[in-house]
């Protein structure tokens, strides 16, 4: 009995000893593990240096405000901050801003020639034709246009655009020179107008005119008058009904059309000296102005600025309709580099496919390779293929400008 108890006691003691040994081993293992972990070096994170951003190159140019504002974001993404100063094309040379300008953006080839003559000591180191615009007549689609179509003064083309022949454009210029009313001109063209129609269309008893921006200050306005002069010169001495080919006026013809040129200019009211502001002024006063002569590009800009709802409404009820002359006047808008930095910028504009697409979508400016963009345009009444004469020689520019005191 005592032996059994002794054996049991020994077993308990052995079990306790074994348990204590196991506990000691576990404690030692945990302690050793902690020491290993604590002794392991803490990794230092690798720091990637943040590159210092390269600031955009600052460029300034005289003119080209629309180009700088509409394309500003894209230009900035390509490393340039371009600012434009509003300076009249013909005031570049006398501007106090010229010495610090990197580039110029004249709105016509004639303006470039004028600058070169006035400022021979400001060499142009690079240049490009950025855009080309076309002069187009405008009228109210809900007021004047139906009667112009009835009288066959204008015609509706197969492509949905409205056109006017060179002969009929000359007829309008003759009506301005002769102080004719719309009623008189339509009647002389063989259109019978009832007394009731004449009373309900009071504008018929106003004088025929074509409103433009001021040719004394606006290169676009002067370009329009080059076109008027070219038509009058082409038809000078022609027999009525004769097929006449319009061509750019030359210096020998200036004297022939001098009186006509001054008569058309003299019929104008106070004119806005900026082409853009003139166009939007015309929109406000279009009910009282039968015809305006401006650029296709400003029409596209106006359309692009409408809301989707307005575009949907105006596509069927357009208040303003462009009328394309069969042969019109084209204008080249240039970028001129006065510094190497602006020359680099011109290279960007020439090579970046963004500019022809966006220039049409936003500005209505055509480039040599933008025809496919025009074809897909949602702007109504746009003519795809436009025939045009170019600006006259600089001697004609000076002679015609001198007639109106430019």
Write up what this structure looks like:
It is a single chain. The protein is an alpha/beta fold and 406 residues long. It has a domain of 218 residues. 46% of the residues lie in helices and 15% in strands. The longest helix has 38 residues. The protein is globular. It starts with a helix and ends with a helix. The mean pLDDT is 85.
Task: Detail the topology: elements first, then pairings.
Blueprint: H1 2-39, E1 57-63, H2 65-70, H3 72-77, E2 80-85, E3 103-105, H4 109-118, E4 126-140, H5 145-150, E5 155-156, E6 162-164, H6 166-177, H7 182-188, H8 195-200, E7 210-211, H9 219-235, H10 254-266, H11 275-285, E8 291-295, H12 296-304, H13 308-316, E9 320-325, E10 328-337, H14 340-351, H15 354-363, H16 371-375, E11 388-389, H17 394-403
Parallel strand pairs: 1-2, 1-3, 6-9, 7-8, 10-11
Antiparallel strand pairs: 3-10, 4-8, 4-9, 4-10, 5-6
Helix pairs in contact: 6-9, 9-10, 10-17, 12-15
